[in-house]
């Protein structure tokens, strides 16, 4: 389940990054269409892309390396993964597990 959940979350985060890049390009090139100043459009676009990149870095650099390790570090990584996946639980491709450990806050 953990490998499938990592793959799922990584795919969602990559989708969000691509959406942020696309939306940022649209807003930056057509700020008047959205009623914003060019500087504000550029700032918002940078923020959206940076946020999406940060989520990917969090997953790949601080969660995935510790999954499956013994002790508190491994348990913490598992919990963090489930927290990152929680907003997508209703997504059609979410890799549901039969156990209740599938939900954030559930005992592992």
TrEMBL record:
Domain of life: Bacteria
InterPro entries per record: DUF6221
Protein name in UniProt: DUF6221 family protein
Organism of provenance: Streptomyces argenteolus
């Amino acid at each position: 389940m953990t490998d499938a959940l990592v793959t799922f979350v990584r795919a969602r985060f990559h989708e969000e990054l691509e959406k942020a890049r696309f939306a940022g390009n649209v807003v930056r090139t057509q700020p008047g269409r959205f009623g914003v100043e060019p500087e504000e459009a550029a700032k918002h676009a940078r923020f959206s892309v940076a946020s999406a990149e940060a989520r990917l870095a969090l997953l790949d650099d601080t969660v995935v390396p510790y999954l499956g390790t013994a002790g508190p570090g491994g348990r913490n990584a598992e919990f963090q993964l489930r927290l990152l996946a929680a907003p997508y639980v209703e997504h059609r491709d979410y890799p549901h597990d039969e156990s209740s450990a599938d939900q954030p806050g559930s005992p592992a």
